[in-house]
Each structure stands twice: as structure tokens, then as C-alpha cells.
Amino acid sequence: MSKANTAYEKRREVAKKFFDSAETRGDGDTPSIRGALDKVPKTASVGLSSKGELLINYHSREEFHAHGCPYEFRNYKYDESKSYTVDGCVGQGDDNIPPGWYFEGTLTDENGGKCKISQYFSPKNKKMREFTLTNFIRNGVTTKENVFDFITAEDQEELKQQMIEEVFCHYTYN
Description:
Structural class: alpha+beta
Radius of gyration: 18 Å
Number of strands: 9
């Protein structure tokens, strides 16, 4: 890796650590940047984008956490005792017709087990949805367990709907 790429990755990592730290220091609804700013090196760039977003080393929160993420998922219809944390990033889908949004992230249970989650959502054609859960990890090791051992089919259906309401609606209407 070139020196320029290494420097870029280091600056990006400072921004990621800042935004992750701000999330954990907040009260759930409002991230706290005061304590997180204390951890940012004095050489880091701190500013605002033209849209008013906070930038750390020219990176915004949206690069690391989608709007509304991380959030807690519980399926109150079936088993509200199980909870999961949904976190990830959203980007515009490729040149699909109609255009849409793509979420990539992780679904983590209260025991630290996690799997990768991705979902494509088209606001124009609400029936056109792709949703996948892959690479189930428990105790830091990828297992061959079935994803249905991690989250039930009923919970997956509710999670799809909740992601549209919690995450995608922000991107769809703005």
C-alpha cells in the first residue's frame, strides 16, 4: 500500500473511531460528541459539509452508520425477549430500473453473535426487495449454523419491514 493510501486509511480510521465513540457515549437517541472529540488527535480536520454534516478528516457519519443506525430490533409480535442491533451503511443501488437504496451491515444478538445483512429497497416498486443474511459468526468464528438458528423467519420478515421504516424512509423521501 502506498504512503498516500496508508495516510488516507489512518485519517479514515480516526473518523470511524470518532463516530463509533459518539454513538456509544450518547443517550440512545442523541450521540454525544463532546467526549468523542477529546479522543480526536489535534492534527485531525474537524469541519462541516455544505449540508451541515459534521466532518472528521473529511468523512461524515453516513459513511459508517446509516441514518437511524445503530438501532435495536425486537419483534413484539412473536418473541420480544430477543433483541438484535442493526448497524450498517446505505448507498444508492446501481443502475437498476427503478433505482433504489442498498443497505449493508451487521445484525448482532445480545450474546455477540452476528451475521452480515444486506437489503435492496426500491421506493418505486415496493415488491422489489432483496434481503440476505450470511456469514453467521459466533465467538469470533464463522460457523456453518443455519441463519434460522440465529433469527427466525418471522423475525426476518418483521426486520425487513422495520428497516424500511427506520432506515430507508429517510433516504427515500429526502
